[in-house]
Amino acid sequence: MATVGCAGILVADNFCGPMAALPNPGEAHDNRLCSVLLGELQPRTTLLADRGYDADWIRELASQKGAWANIPPKRNRREPICFSPHLYRARNLVERFFNKIKQCRRIATRYDKLAANYLAFIKLASIRLWLRAYESTP
Hints:
Blueprint: E1 2-3, E2 9-12, E3 18-22, H1 34-37, E4 46-48, H2 56-64, E5 68-70, H3 85-88, H4 91-101, H5 105-109, H6 115-136
Parallel strand pairs: 1-4, 4-5
Antiparallel strand pairs: 2-3
């Protein structure tokens, strides 16, 4: 399962661990970076994204990679699409991950001027979360 969202775009696996991340310029929409990050999308995966990513070219890119895009349709979409609200509930786990990494003040406020520094702190926060989850398991 891959999901997109957050400040910039982040691809997470079904364990809510980040697989790839790219920050975007503040005034640009996140879906401009989809083609870069979803280039590594594996076959037979499900792409979960919010309504802002409902674009035919994103769905086509996912189907070319052998994945299925489960994105809720925008209200102004003319032709109906296949969407499963049941599968979309799994996106809640990734939203929790975004909320947890935004507990780090430096990530939430984006103080870093360089994208490399910002991504490094996202990775550090992710490692911290992973270590907490690993220590709490018996």
